Amino acid sequence: MPTLHVLTVNAHMGFDLLNRRFVLPELRDAIRSVGADIVFLQEVMGANARHAKRHPNWPQGTQYQFLADQIWPHHAYGCNAIYPDGHHGNALLSTFPILRYDNRDVSVHGHEGRGLLHAVLALPDGRELHAVCVHLGLREAHRQRQLALLGELVRDEIPEDAPLIVAGDFNDWRLRGHPHLRRFGLGEAFETHCGRLARSFPARYPTLRLDRIYLRNVRVEHAEALSSRPWCHLSDHAPLSARVHA
């Protein structure tokens, strides 16, 4: 069974937690230092013409391509929100080939765009690993609808015996969505390894358990929240890291 290193990061559009400083190059260095095989990204920009004019070190391509450069040869992007200057969404970076992917729009009309990016990766042993990058809404009623759609995706489109990792920003600060995911056979990496969900928000003094790494047919070996420097200055969320056996 191969050992995989998984990282989930809310990229915060490439800006620091106060939205004052463009820190994407520093974030890329920090993500590279972890040595993850699979990186789940939320709030990553596909394009933004206004920011590109204002910041001289803005990448020529997309933010996820800039982060992936020369380290993760395979990547997928799901656009969640489109606006006059550009768009942003979820992305997945992988050292393993991505066989196919699909982005499911779970946005509630009139509110911020949200999505579920579902990718199928080819593991070295020939098996397929399903990875779902999640970013849910800020309102409880919206999250309940979005979690129901996530449950349908897991139930209807992912084989019960397939390795599955669901990770990202769930915005579930009251923990009401957590039992719902258990009903689909998903165990949370930090709860399994540490006995409790990780505190990930706000980055400098994490108190809320917003970010998660859920697993099915995958065993967790180690889990850690990255809330010290430099991470606490690179986003408003602390990234989560886990080593797992698929």
Automatic annotation (TrEMBL):
One of its GO terms (cellular component) is membrane. It comes from the Bacteria. GO terms for molecular function: catalytic activity. GO terms for biological process: GPI anchor biosynthetic process. Residues 8-237 form the Endonuclease/exonuclease/phosphatase domain. PANTHER family: CALCOFLUOR WHITE HYPERSENSITIVE PROTEIN PRECURSOR, ENDONUCLEASE_EXONUCLEASE_PHOSPHATASE DOMAIN-CONTAINING PROTEIN. This is EEP domain-containing protein. It comes from Cognatilysobacter bugurensis. The lineage of its organism: Bacteria, Pseudomonadati, Pseudomonadota, Gammaproteobacteria, Lysobacterales.
